[in-house]
Structure formats: C-alpha cells, structure tokens
UniProtKB/TrEMBL annotation:
4Fe-4S domain location: 355-421
Keyword flag DNA-binding: yes
GO molecular function: 4 iron, 4 sulfur cluster binding; ATP binding; DNA binding; metal ion binding
Name recorded for this polypeptide: HTH-type transcriptional regulatory protein TyrR
PANTHER family linked: C4-DICARBOXYLATE TRANSPORT TRANSCRIPTIONAL REGULATORY PROTEIN DCTD, TRANSCRIPTIONAL REGULATORY PROTEIN
Organism: Caloranaerobacter ferrireducens
Domain PAC: 490-542
Coiled coil ranges: 405-435
Length: 882
C-alpha cells in the first residue's frame, strides 16, 4: 500500500509540532528531522494542519485523475457534501458544471451513500439491543482502532463509509458499463481507504479539494463562467448532514428512537483516545457513539476554505435548504452488501523498564521528579513519555529544550574559558618567541613583517617599522638575500647563509605555513650566528663524551634498581614509564600498555609481574592476534570432554585458567573478536570463567595486563571494539614512546645487544663513531626489535672487529640522506668544492659496486663517464674494475 503522507526534509525545522499533534505518535525524529512511521500513521492529517513550515506532503492524485479522464469514456465524480464550504463563493450548480467541463460524465453526491448506510445501521442496531456500537464512517478513526487499539474492533459497526457505499451504488446502476469513479473530498485518510484490498475496484482515484482547484487551473476552467448543472445522483437530502459533527447520529435519530443517555458525539482525537480508555476500563455506559477524529468534514485537513468553523456550519444548512427545493425523490431499491471487515494491524514498539527510562532521563540531567519539567517543547506531554519514545527509537535525546539551553549555557561558558585560554596561549607564544635564542621574523603570505623578536633585532641591529616588508629590508641591504622572498617563490623550506650590513653571517632557515588551499599564509624565518654555531659544536663534542659515560652509568643503575637485566633505560621518557610501572606493580589494577610494534610492551609487562606480589606465580602470555578466530575461544577458556569434534577426551584448561593467582598478559588485545570481548569482560568484572561445553563456572584470580599497538579508542568509535571492555582495560594506561622519541636509549641498546651477540658468536665487535651517529639519526620504524635484529646482522656479516659505515645496510644511509650530506668547514672555490664531492661519490661507489656498469646505473650517468672519472680520481686503468 502506498504511503499517503511524507515530509519535505529541507522544510522541516525541528519545531516538533507534528510530534505534539499526532494522536498516533507516528512521527519519528532522526538526526533532528521528522519522518512518518507509516506502520503507525492513521492519515488523520493533524500533522498537515499543524505544520508551520508546510513540510508535510500528501500523495498527489492529479496526474492519475487526468490520465483516467483521458483514457476512459465514462468517468463519474462523487463529491463530498462539504464541497460547498470549500467553494463557498459559488452556487453548487456551477461546481457541477465545472466538473462536467473537466470531463466527468456524471457528478454524484456522496450523501447518497450516506443515506443508504444510515438505513443499514438502523436495521442492524435494532436487532442488537444491548450492544455498544462505534460508528465507522471516519477512516482515520478506523485506522486508529486497527493499528493501535485492535481490541476495540468488536465495537465497530461493520459497515462501509459513504464514499465506498456511493461507489458501490454507482457501479450497481452502471453494471454493464466500463466506468471509472473519482472521489472528491477534504479528507486525506480517504486516499488510504480507497486502497484497502477489500474495496479494490470501487474507487479509482481520490482527489482533495485543493487538488480539484489545481485541475480547474490546469484545464483553464473559470467556475464563475461554468454552466449551471444539477447532480446526476439519486435523490438525497438528510445525508448532506454527514459533514457536520454528529451528522450520522442526526440521521439515525430520525429512523431509530435513541434516548439521550444512550448516545455520545465525539469530534476530536483527544476525546477519541479518552473514550477508548473508558471503554477498556468498563466505565462507559452508552449504547452508540458517533466518532470523528476532527470536527466533521467541514474541518478536514484539506477543506481549503477561508470560512470560520461556524460559517461553515451555516453554509451546510444553507446548501441543504437550497438543494432540497428542486430535488426529485427516486425510489430505487438496491440489493447491495454494505458490510465490511476489520483487521488487526498493530505494530508493537518495545517498552522500556523503569531503570531504562531513568537512564534516558539522566542523559538530559533529570535525576529527580523536580527535574522533570514536562514543558512539552519536545512534542511529548511528559518527560517520561519522551524517554519512552527515545527507547523506542522514535525520538532523540537532544529534543529536550531545557537540556539544550543548559547545554548551550555550558558551551558558552566553555567558549569563554577557551577564549581566555587562547589569550593565555597568545601571551605564552609571545613569551616563547621573545625568549628564543634564535632570531625570529614572521611574515604574511605577501612578505609583510608581522613579528620580530629581540634576538633578531639584536643580531641584525635594526628595528623594523610598521607595514615594512622583507623586500624593503633586502633593498636596504640590512640582511640579504631575503629568505622569505625565496620561500614565497619556491614554496618550500629553504636554508642558506645570509649576510648582514654589519658584516656578520647567519644560517637562515625559512619555513612556509600553508592554508587549506595550499597557499602560503605565513613564513617563519630563524637565523643563527655562524661564529656562535662553531663554538657550540666544539662544546657539544665535549658534552657527548660526558653523555656516553652518563648513559652507561645510568643504564647500570636502572638495571640494578629494577632487578631486570633485559631492561636498558637511559632516556628520561623510558625512565618515567618504568617509574609508573613500578608504582602500579604493587597493586592489582588492570594495566593497558600502549605503543608501536617492537617498543618492548612484553618487557614492561614482565617487569610489572616481577615486581608484584604475584612474581612467584604464573605469567601467562596470550597473543590475541596469533591464534585463529575459530580456536581462540577454546585456547582462552578451555573446554570440557566432548565439547566439540577433535576435543581431547579429558578436556583442557584454558590459558586464563592456567594464569590463576598469577598475571595474564593479553598481547595484541585489539585483535580479539567482538564475540569474545563479552566473555573477556566478564572475566575482568567477575573473575569467573566457564569452559566450552561446561555447566559450572570457575573462579579465577588473575591480574590482567593488556597491550596493543592499535588505537582502541578509535576502534570503539567505529564499533570495532566494545566500549565497556575498553574502559575496563584502560584503568592504568602506560604508553611506551617509540625509539625515535627517546634517542638517548639508542646507543645503550646498541651496546647491550652488541654484548649479547659478541658473547653468542664469540667475537669482539665494536661500533665506529660514524656508525654511532648514523644509528642515532635513524628513525627506527621497527623500534627496539629492529635495532636488535640490525646489530645481530652486522655482528655476523662484518669481517673486521670495527663495524664501519661500509658494513651498514644501504637503507640506513638512504633514510638519513647520509650520502647526500656535505660538511662545509671553510670557504674554497666552487669548482674545487664540486670536484671534492664528485671524488667522494666516485670513491664510495667504487668500493661498493663490482663493475662500472653498476656504478653508472646508481650514479645516473653513462658507463664511459664513470670510467673517465675513475681514471681521474682513483687509477689509470678503470677497466680492471670490471
């Protein structure tokens, strides 16, 4: 069945008026936008009338109707009596004439069907004196019963609506003709009623009054100029009261003697629900209820009339009076079945427990009854109703206006605090720039000077003026050439020697800062005095000698203090890791060790275990990423006899069970499957496990240490890792910095591994100074594990006792651009400098490669050039190298 009402998302503005006015709670809010829940919608049109943005869209039947008119010879319009309210400016005969001009063969009043239905109902209730009856002409009320209160179906009168009755009468009278019938009225729910399977083939299309007006406009029909014509339908009069509240009852009272205490008229949705609740509770004593979801068809959602409610009532009575004068009564007996059936269409939403309601209330800062303001801004009568709707998935937490205002207030406070922090950061940045030992100058993307620090002004001996640019300074030879201008031209970082008007030289480095469009928005240039740099270099060399002694002494101190000879800790960063690890070792708190692959997470886990009270108990390591998914559960939790095919006869304890009273180290915890995370969470929370195939739980006393090189928090956000397990594991996080961030650990580790492999392979290798520098400069993406493997490699492959640069693998030299680095210690002619570099490259390639062809390939020149260079720098007969 087609969806009758939909919503234009670009018009919906989160006013929640449709939520507030929908009697069936058939509006769902998702990401702030309203959506119709069609399984609950009764098509009453309340959301249409109440929507200030006119965002509700009713399915359009104009195209279908015009197509029917084009393709069929006999198309009959049956129009609801309330049409006179929508077209109140015209005589009713003009409307009939205009419909004929559109192309309708006949025009019928739906009041005809209404009168036949009244007669059928009158006979029916006479035979059932003690029953309660609910009237059935209103399709919205029928949907309310079928979808939300199916237990009330037994009280519904089993008769079709006047629209369906009229359709059946027309088809009976035209039984030998191929006809099409179009209903015209103010009710949206009629579009849905016509599509009911039991009414198939009766009504072919349903137009609302506003759609009919559009068709008149499309056809260019002016109602005022239309010919006056009368209806083609059977005589009717009393049925024209049906558009009014109590119209059915008014007709019945003339046929059946109902006492005043036996009937009730209801014409709004709130009273409909109240009636149903009263009937369910056994507190309603009446016999007949004439029920409408609105104040009659004259107040329908698509009545499209400028008259007020009472003017509309008067218009109906005026129409009845005028149309009755010239009407001729036709006594036609029709053998027709006006009986219909009803179905249970209820779609049940889940209902929360009291604790779940309270949890949702707490999310909007409602912790007591006094916090529940019940303001109704969200569209729900009470905060509890809204909490239930949130649980059912048809509302959102952020619909609560007081909560949003509170949230906004806090956000303003936070922004104010952030603004203060920004100001403080600005002041701190100013202080940092001013305290820098280097001279600093900051410009915009056009080269205008924004900031210089006192060190720059002191070095250069110049005070910049407002709006001055680096181009101005360069033109005055204050400091030249301009590093900023070169960066703006090249769009990359540049370093070179600058000269000053005071005769000094500076090492200048200019760095561009790009915006999101890859345009330079700032250039930061720092300068250093060359003479000062040379002096510092000499001091650094002396400091390195002292530092080496300090490293070795400190490393021995750590090893002695922590009683763990596998740990080499020289850096402050790793020392802080060990300090935290030693503190947490004294308690049983869960520890999450974070760090890249190869940084030594297992070493730290062992360290914690060895310092703990559990040091004499098992230390069980589980690599969650190394065990296949189909085996990991049995490995972790064990299994009982016959638990699965291939299981050992006596069963097997799991690794968690084996770690009882000791430490369980869960390495690569991020790789554990989601389905096992729940069971692992239970182990952490309750210290209980159950083997696969088991029926009894076992208590396990384990200290949990987990480790991962993945970002678990990011995995939680993506739904790849359970949030509750993450927070249980992340009690004490210990992050091990990568080796590149603790450079002072590199050489101690090198000598540690060198000692191990010298002993293992019975040799006495040592590192040259140049190798030490290269190893310290390397980035070590594989961390300590990569360093260990490299040391073993050079120990076993180096023929001499001293490991030199030539013994290192090429990737170390390439990564650090070692081969490309040139130390400049003095000034010499440019030609000599080029030849010096060229000679070094040829000599290095000559030692490394076996033939001149290989050398030529690596150096990017042809083989004859290589031969010529060898003859120039090394020996006369270069061909001997091949």
């Amino acid at each position: 069945m087609q969806d009758i009402i939909s919503i234009s998302q670009n018009k919906c503005k989160q006013c929640y008026s449709c939520v507030r006015n929908c009697p069936a709670k058939a509006v769902q809010i998702e990401s702030g936008q309203a959506k119709i829940v069609h399984s609950r919608c009764i098509n009453c049109g309340k959301c249409i009338k109440s929507c200030p943005q006119e965002a509700k869209i009713v399915i359009d039947s104009k195209g279908k109707t015009l197509s029917i008119l084009r393709e069929n010879d006999t198309v009959i319009a049956c129009i609801a009596p309330s049409f006179i309210v929508s077209f109140h400016e015209y005589n009713y005969k003009k409307i009939v004439g205009a419909l004929k001009e559109v192309g309708f063969s006949e025009v019928w009043e739906v009041a005809v069907g209404a009168e036949y239905i009244v007669e059928a109902i009158s006979q029916y209730i006479k035979n059932k004196e003690n029953n309660l009856f609910l009237s059935s002409p209103c399709p919205a009320f029928i949907s309310l019963i079928e979808k939300h209160y199916p237990e009330m179906i037994k009280y519904l009168l089993p008769f079709v609506s006047p629209m369906i009755a009229t359709g059946k009468i027309i088809r009976k009278l035209h039984k030998n003709k191929n006809i099409k019938i179009v209903f015209i009225g103010p009710c949206v729910a009629k579009k849905c009623e016509a599509l009911e399977p039991q009414f198939d083939g009766i009504i072919d299309s349903v137009l609302t009054f506003d759609e009919l007006k559009d068709i008149f406009a499309i056809k260019g029909i002016n109602i005022e100029n239309a010919q006056e014509m009368d209806f083609d339908s059977i005589y009717c009069n009393e049925g024209k009261l049906f558009p009014l509240s109590g119209g059915l009852l008014g007709n019945l009272k003339s046929l059946y003697n109902l006492k005043e205490s036996e009937y009730v008229v209801i014409d709004n949705d709130k009273d409909c629900v109240e009636l149903i609740n009263a009937i369910k509770a056994g507190k309603f004593k009446g016999k007949f209820v004439d029920v409408l979801m609105c104040r009659g068809c004259i107040d329908g959602p698509k009545i499209d009339s400028s008259l007020n409610y009472y003017e509309r009532i008067n218009k109906i009575y005026e129409y009845i009076k005028n149309s009755a004068k010239k009407a001729k009564k036709r006594n036609i007996k029709l053998e027709l079945d006006f009986i219909r059936y009803y179905r249970n269409k209820r779609s049940i939403l889940p209902y929360p427990t009291e604790s779940e309601i309270q949890r949702i209330l707490n999310m909007t800062n409602k912790f007591t009854k006094e916090d529940e303001l019940n303001c109704g801004a969200c569209g729900y009568s009470t905060c509890r109703d809204k909490a239930i709707a949130v649980f059912q998935g048809i509302a959102e937490v952020d619909m609560c206006l007081p909560y949003l205002i509170s949230k906004k207030t806090k956000l303003v406070e936070q922004l104010s605090e952030t603004l203060k922090e920004t100001e403080n950061l600005k002041d701190e940045l100013e202080a940092v720039i001013e305290s820098s030992y280097d001279g600093l100058v900051v410009t915009d993307g056009e080269g205008r000077i924004l900031k210089t620090n006192s060190a720059w002004r002191k070095m250069v001996g110049y005070e910049t003026k407002k709006e001055e640019s680096v181009k101005d300074i360069e033109s005055k030879n204050i400091i030249f050439p301009s590093a900023t201008l070169l960066v703006l031209k090249e769009k990359r970082r540049i370093s070179f020697i600058q000269h000053s008007h005071n005769g000094k030289e500076y090492l200048a480095t200019a760095t561009p800062i790009f915006d999101s469009n890859s345009s330079i928005k700032r250039v930061v240039t720092n300068i250093r005095d060359i003479d000062e740099l040379n002096r510092l270099r000499d001091q650094i060399e002396e400091t390195r000698k002292l530092q080496k002694y300090y490293k070795e002494t400190k490393s021995r101190t750590y090893n002695k203090e922590y009683h763990n000879e596998n740990i080499v800790a020289n850096s402050i960063e790793f020392g802080e890791v060990l300090s935290l690890a030693s503190s947490v070792a004294k308690v049983d708190s869960t520890v999450l060790i974070l760090g890249e692959s190869g940084v030594g997470k297992e070493i730290v886990a062992n360290f914690i275990h060895n310092l703990s009270t559990r040091k004499d108990k098992p230390f069980i390591k589980i690599n969650c990423g190394a065990i296949p998914d189909n085996l990991i559960e049995s490995e972790l939790f064990g299994y009982e006899t016959g638990a699965f095919t291939g299981a050992k006869k006596k069963g097997k304890p799991g690794l968690i069970e084996l770690a009882h009273e000791g430490t369980l180290f869960l390495d690569e915890i991020g790789e554990i499957p989601l389905n096992l995370q729940v069971k692992l969470l239970r182990v952490i929370q309750e210290r209980k496990i159950m083997r696969i195939g088991g029926i009894r739980e076992k208590y396990v006393d384990v200290r949990i240490i987990a480790a991962t090189n993945r970002d678990l928090y990011d995995m939680v956000q993506k739904g790849e890792f359970r949030a509750d397990l993450y927070y249980r594991l992340n009690v004490v996080p210990i992050e091990i910095p990568p080796l590149r961030k603790r450079k002072t650990d590199i050489l101690p580790l090198c000598y540690h591994f060198l000692e191990i492999f010298n002993s293992k392979y019975r040799c006495n290798k040592r590192l040259s100074k140049s190798v030490e520098r290269i190893l310290e400069d390397y980035n070590w993406p594989g961390n300590v594990r990569e360093l260990e493997n490299l040391i073993e490699r050079v120990v076993v492959t180096t023929p001499s006792d001293v490991i030199d640069i030539k013994d290192l693998p090429m990737f170390l030299l390439n990564t650090n651009d070692y081969c490309k680095k040139v130390d400049i210690e003095g000034i010499l002619p440019l030609k000599e400098a080029v030849e010096l570099v060229e000679k070094k490259l040829i000599e290095k390639a000559y030692r490394k490669y076996k033939s001149t062809y290989e050398m030529a390939k690596v150096l990017g020149v042809n083989q004859s050039t290589v031969v010529r260079k060898i003859q120039k720098y090394i020996k006369s007969n270069a061909l001997e190298h091949d």
